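Slide 14.
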Amino acid sequence: MTHPLPSADSGAPHRFSVVVVGAGPAGLTVGNILRAASVDCLVLETETREFIEQRPRAGVIEEWAVRGLEKRGLARNLLDRAQLHTACEFRFDGERYRFPYGELTGRHHFVYPQPLLVTDLVGEYADVRGGAIRFGVRDVRVHDAGTDRPRVSYTCPETGELQVVHCDFVAGCDGARGVSRAALPPERVRIARHDYGIGWLALLAEAPPSTDCVLFGCHARGFAGQMPRSPEVTRYYYLQCPPGDDVENWPHERVWSELRERLGAAGAPPPAEGRLIEKRVLDMHDYVVEPMAHGRLFLAGDAAHLVAPIAAKGMNLALHDAFLLGDALVAWLATGDGSGLDGYAQACLRRVWDYQEFSQWLSEVYHGTAAGDPFRAGTALARLRRLFNSPTAAAAFAEQYLGTAARY
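Slide 15: predicted structure.
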């Protein structure tokens, strides 16, 4: 359901306590937290509802994040339908090594594709909790964020008229290419960026899984991975490639030949071949924006930080931001307690930098063997062997892989 705003000539004020820009996992989670507390809010999204519910994304969710959703009444379908993963498998030196992190920690991952989570969140927000949301809006702008009377303007998709919404706070959850970050004063913004100098060819294939867990192939020809996508036969595969590579350089036969080679190991069946229904090249890079807040504008998710999909941390960070921001906004609006908002950025960034460091470490494990540098290849293999020979190293890796090192 899309809740209409008052028309421009109705005389009714365009005002909400909070305007949320962006209807991804972060924005919709913030919106749901606000609506559960009876806070009036408006979510603005440039895409259609159908688009955000079908946009292909990965879906490895850490257990603490699922418990955070469950606590807020947002995990019913997830808990019923998600796969539980308790192990992953590394393949290197022609052998396969299973890493049973569930046995080491008693914890697991949930695998629930992001489109399904977004579908759940938007349904709960708009259809169940009665939250106002506008899809397909254009020309969104944040105004006067540094004052106590911010405004958000946008062009109405139905009428083409400019709409202006007054609010107490703006939650900027509109991703890496959104407008929220541009509302920060440029002289105050610091963007810390890291480029890995590699690309991943992301593949969606109609093929059954070749094993029951996530696979990481560390090979001299480049990294390869098989990531779960859904309980059906569709799976994500990844292949290391040059940054900016053209997908036309990867026809069907080359893709499956490289997957067989890079994921090959003694006793392992080759990946089952199937039709490739999506191919994209992702250039691996990270960034962190500081500050994450300016006046009454607070950034969350990819608007504030991006972690390359190397460690499958992006959606988890977005949810962490949303829990903190939603709860802090409710505290301020309900009781005037501003401590959560005052400490929001610092609390978020502790986990952000922890995940960034792990992503860098894991990247060297994945890609070092293909670097063309014997020293990097040797140290990458040493790290891999240590995981299976040192209980201390295994426990440390499991803690970071599961996201339990950075406490929330």
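Speaker note: Confidence is low (pLDDT under 50) at residues 1-13.
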